[in-house]
Structure formats: structure tokens, C-alpha cells
Design a protein that fits this description.
By secondary structure, this protein is of the alpha/beta class. It contains 6 helices and 7 strands; from the N terminus they run αβββαβαβαββαα. 41% of the residues lie in helices and 16% in strands. The chain is elongated, with a radius of gyration of 22 Å.
């Protein structure tokens, strides 16, 4: 074996050892954590509480908490609403509301929930239309977005406004990708704030850190 071949083998061995060491370091140390990357949020063209057309592309550039409820859900949505309002208050105090994070509520009862109804609901909650959009639209399109795109099953409301829904709240990143979801009672405050920070750090990463974040997805460095 000549000298050049030995050097080549030594170089390959060094590279392999380096790669294995890096992989082991990521698995054990988990230098950064990331939220899983899901599907793109389904495209839509709906109408908000002011009667304005809202497209999915209008949400790009900011994180979005997407909730599913309706005007007449009452106690069924009470805890979810309370948690979202609590989160909104903290984000407003920190200056992140509107500029970095917004809220979107999609009605599950578009037959009854007109823009005027949703405007009244927003008024009752004391939220502004710039940072929290309530949307309605064609029932078929709502079903395609919620049932088809988000995979959430729900029934038509009965005469008392009651419906069954596998209600969840979704967190969408600034590129429109679904990153996580929370149970029917809404996102716990500490978890939601942690998730916002994880996405913000990942989206702002550059240079070598960008590769670190990509590797973190490869090695499933997800938060507990």
C-alpha cells in the first residue's frame, strides 16, 4: 500500500470518526431543541369579523395560534378561551403581540356565525382585529380546512348550538408550517411561551447555527 493510499484511508477514517462523534454529541447533548415540522397550513380564502377577505398568505411572517370554536359554544370553549386570552395578555405586555405573534379563530359553525356575530364575540373578549382575526366562510371550505387540512373531526351544531369537535389549537410558524398543537383546553402558558421562543430562535438562525438547527431536526431534538 503506497503512501497516498494510506493517507486517503486515514483521512476517510478521520472524517467518519468526526461524523460519528458529532452524531453522538447531538444525541446526548442536544445543543438546541426544535419543534417538529408538520404540514403546511391549508390554503384558504375566508372572511374576518370586519367583513374583509383574509388569505392564508396574509398570515406569513408571524407566528399564528389557530383556534377552533364558534359563537355559541359557551362553556365548551371557556377554558380554551381563557388560556388564549392569558397568552395574549402576556404577549401584549412583552411587545410581541401583533408584531411577532397573532391569533386566528376559525368558526366551526359558519352557517350561523356571520362577520357581525364574530365581531360581537371579539368585542366581548376585548380583542382587536389587528392581532386576533375571527373568520367564517363557506361551510364546505371550512370543512376542507379544518377536517381535511388540520385533521380535526367535528359535527354540525344542533338547534342549541352544541356540536362535537376534536377541538385543538395549532401553532403555525412564520413560513406557514404547522409546528405543534395543543389539546382542547388550549395551550398552557409556559408551554406556549417556550414554543414561541423555540420557533423565534430557529427562524432567526444564520450561518453555522442554521446547520445546527437542521441537524437538530435530523436527530429529533424535540422538547419533552
Amino acid at each position: 500500500m503506497d503512501r497516498r493510499m494510506r493517507l486517503g484511508i486515514a483521512l476517510i477514517s478521520t472524517v467518519l470518526v468526526g461524523l460519528l462523534t458529532t452524531m453522538l454529541w447531538f444525541v446526548i447533548a442536544r445543543p438546541v431543541k426544535v419543534l417538529p415540522r408538520g404540514e403546511q397550513f391549508p390554503p384558504f380564502a375566508l372572511t374576518d369579523q370586519r367583513g374583509n377577505r383574509l388569505l392564508d398568505s396574509d398570515l406569513r411572517g408571524r407566528m399564528v395560534f389557530v383556534s377552533l370554536m364558534h359563537r355559541r359554544c359557551g362553556e365548551d370553549c371557556a377554558e380554551q378561551t381563557r388560556r388564549l386570552l392569558e397568552l395574549r395578555k402576556v404577549l401584549q405586555s412583552s411587545g410581541r403581540l401583533g408584531s411577532e405573534v397573532i391569533f386566528l379563530t376559525i368558526t366551526l359553525d359558519p352557517v350561523h356565525d356571520t362577520p357581525a356575530d364574530l365581531s360581537a364575540l371579539a368585542g366581548e373578549l376585548g380583542v382587536d382585529p389587528q392581532s386576533w382575526r375571527f373568520v367564517t366562510g363557506d361551510p364546505h371550505e371550512i370543512k376542507m380546512i379544518v377536517g381535511g387540512g388540520l385533521g380535526v373531526y367535528y359535527t354540525e351544531p344542533d338547534e342549541n348550538g352544541k356540536l362535537y369537535a376534536e377541538r385543538r389549537t395549532f401553532l403555525i410558524d412564520p413560513s406557514g408550517m404547522i409546528r405543534t398543537s395543543y389539546p382542547a383546553e388550549g395551550p398552557p402558558l409556559e408551554t406556549a411561551l417556550r414554543d414561541i421562543d423555540l420557533i423565534a430562535r430557529e427562524m432567526s438562525s444564520q450561518g453555522a447555527m442554521r446547520f445546527v438547527y437542521e441537524a437538530s431536526h435530523l436527530f429529533v431534538c424535540y422538547p419533552e
